[in-house]
Amino acid sequence: MTPTTRFLDLVHPAAGTALVSEWRTGTDERSRAAADAMAEEWAAAEAPSARLAQHLFRSVDGAGLLFYAQWTSDEEHLAWARAHRAAVVSRVDTLVPGIERPGLNRTRLQRSVVHDAESPCGVFVVTKATGDIEGLLAPAPGLLAAHVHLTADGERAIVFAEWTDTAAQEAAYGAAYEEGVASVDELDFKRYVLHHASLDRHPHWPS
Predict the structure, then answer these.
(1) pTM score, whole prediction
(2) DSSP 8-state assignment for residue 47
(3) What are the pLDDT digits (tens) for 89-119?
(4) Dist. CA 90–CA 127, nearest whole Å
């Protein structure tokens, strides 16, 4: 995938679940090493038939990674994880020890709001929220699109927003703060770039 890849290029229409998980590595060097090791694991092993796609994002600040995996169902993923996940993770941990993994979020892509389908995406901003998310979806200079994922219990949302660049996102959030709409400090968000895309069932996604 190219640096201009848009989020909907990564979404498989047959996915029954979208798994979002974070790895905290601490430094950019460790993040890149872990990301490359994980990509090598994917390339070396046969892709599970139920895994439709799996993508890896690297945080702009260098502190961690974000995985976005699409499977036919949670049950299929759990069966694979019981049999294979420990071995895969242990090999990465041998190369990059001490990675923190706060947990896996099982989500569904609920909706996408696209303001600009043509411009290249410079940065992905991933926000975890429990309240009103409409402010994250409203048009703003530099906001290309936002993709809302709901957790299985429907209590939380994870929003993948596409921005032209970090400066545009910072300006928009600063304006919202000045207007009293939102405080950046109150939002749980991180900035990412796409590091690796594994399209196990490639688009434009023929069945």
Answers:
(1) 0.90
(2) P
(3) 999 999 999 999 999 999 999 999 999 999 9
(4) 29
Cβ atoms of 149 and 178 closer than 8 Å: no
Q: Which parts of the chain fold into alpha helices (H)?
A: 28-44, 74-80, 86-95, 134-137, 166-178
- Reply yes or no on whether the pLDDT at 198 is more than 90: no
- The C-alpha angle with vertex 178 and arms to 173 and 181, in degrees rounded to 5, equals 70
| DSSP strand pairing (123-129 vs 143-151) | unpaired
CA dihedral 76→77→83→87, nearest 10 degrees, is 160
**Domains of the chain with bracketed CATH:** 7-104 (3.30.70.100), 109-193 (3.30.70.100)
CA–CA dist 200, 134 (Å, integer): 33
- Please compute Rg for the chain using Cα positions: 17
* pLDDT tens digits along 137-158: 999 999 999 999 999 888 899 9
